[in-house]
């Protein structure tokens, strides 16, 4: 065991947040999971202790979009004895035709995916600065790099998160705090499983132009990216190829997207 870190993972009771805890614990890090549901947190912590016996797993029931996140985070960091690495994985996904999504869908998505991350980072900064090796990892999405049919709310939140992360990286670098952002495609998770029951056919066709990944592939890419230190981490070779095209050949990328959407189009009515 070398260089153990004190790690806080938001959205840590399921999905990518929970999956990332496993390799971090195996390297000897002290991990605390933060999520809203205390029952799910207790179950998640039990699973981790079974997978990685003898490790230190803390839990904190809190809402990143709520007013108490700063106080709750201070309490968790005090229990860990400091904070070295903050992974912001808490998020929700709302999909649907723009005419069908409500004002609440947009507000809630932005409040958790964007403002929740901002609140958490602002609360964590004094602790990250005090550690001497502060590190922030924001989990965004390929939906932060391109528009996706049915994701007007979700893309808005992830575009905002990517822009925030870019600006934050520039601001934190002189202070010795590393900032990275992860932009995975869709991957196996409870959130995506739930979406599969209700998503529009156009969204299904558009998102699958980049194949869904398994969560292990995403975790391996994140862990490799943490070691390499690159600002933008894009899991999956095909995802990286597609996002290269999105960035450098946007006209062609939109033509391909429009063709797949047109073949599946049903519309809001």
Task: Name the features.
7-stranded parallel beta sheet; alpha/beta; 7 strands; 269 residues; single chain; Rossmann fold
Can you describe this structure?
The protein has 269 residues and is of the alpha/beta class. It has one domain (6-191, 210-244): NAD(P)-binding Rossmann-like Domain (Rossmann fold). 53% of the residues lie in helices and 12% in strands. The chain has helices at 15-26, 38-51, 69-80, 103-131, 152-172, 190-195, 201-207, 215-228, 237-248, 250-264; strands spanning 6-10, 30-35, 57-61, 85-88, 135-139, 178-182, 232-233. The chain has a seven-stranded parallel β-sheet, sandwiched between helices. The longest helix is centred in the middle third of the chain and has 29 residues, at 103-131. The radius of gyration is 18 Å and the shape is globular. The mean pLDDT is 95.
Strand content: 5-15%
What's the quaternary structure here? Answer: single chain
- Main sheet properties: 7 strands, parallel
Looking at the overall shape, the CATH architecture is 3-Layer(aba) Sandwich
**SS class:** alpha/beta
CATH topology: Rossmann fold
CATH class: Alpha Beta
CATH homologous superfamily identity: NAD(P)-binding Rossmann-like Domain
Order of helices and strands: EHEHEHEHEHEHHHEHH
| Total of helices | 10
Q: List how many beta strands DSSP finds.
A: 7
User: Major sheet: order of its strands?
Assistant: 3-2-1-4-5-6-7
Q: Compute the CA-based radius of gyration.
A: 18 Å
**General shape:** globular
- The separation of the N and C termini measures 58 Å
pLDDT average, as an integer?
95
Uncertain segments of ≥5 residues (pLDDT<50)? none
Share of helix among residues? 40-55%
Domain unit count: 1
């Amino acid at each position: 065991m070398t260089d153990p870190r004190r790690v806080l993972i938001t959205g840590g009771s399921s999905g990518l947040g929970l999956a990332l805890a496993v390799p971090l614990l195996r390297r000897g890090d002290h991990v605390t999971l933060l999520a809203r549901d205390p029952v799910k947190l207790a179950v998640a912590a039990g699973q981790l202790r079974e997978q990685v016996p003898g490790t230190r797993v803390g839990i904190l029931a809190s809402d990143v979009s709520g007013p108490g996140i700063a106080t709750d985070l201070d309490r968790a960091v005090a229990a860990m004895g400091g904070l070295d690495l903050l992974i912001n994985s808490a998020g929700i996904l709302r999909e649907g035709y723009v005419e069908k999504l409500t004002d609440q869908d947009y507000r809630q998505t932005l409040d958790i995916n964007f403002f929740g991350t901002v609140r958490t980072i602002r609360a964590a900064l004094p602790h990250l600065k005090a550690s001497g090796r502060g590190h922030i990892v924001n989990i965004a999405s390929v939906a932060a790099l391109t528009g996706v049919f049915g994701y007007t709310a979700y893309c808005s939140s992830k575009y905002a998160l990517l822009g925030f992360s870019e600006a934050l990286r520039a601001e934190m670098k002189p202070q010795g705090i590393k900032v990275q952002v992860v932009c995975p495609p869709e991957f196996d998770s409870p959130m995506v499983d739930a979406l599969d029951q209700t998503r529009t056919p156009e969204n299904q066709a558009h998102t699958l132009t980049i194949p869904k990944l398994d969560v292990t592939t995403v975790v391996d890419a994140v862990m490799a990216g943490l070691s390499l230190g690159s600002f933008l981490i894009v899991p999956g070779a095909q995802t990286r190829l597609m996002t290269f095209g999105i960035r450098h050949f946007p006209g062609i990328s939109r033509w391909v997207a429009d063709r797949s959407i047109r073949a599946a189009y049903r519309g809001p009515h």
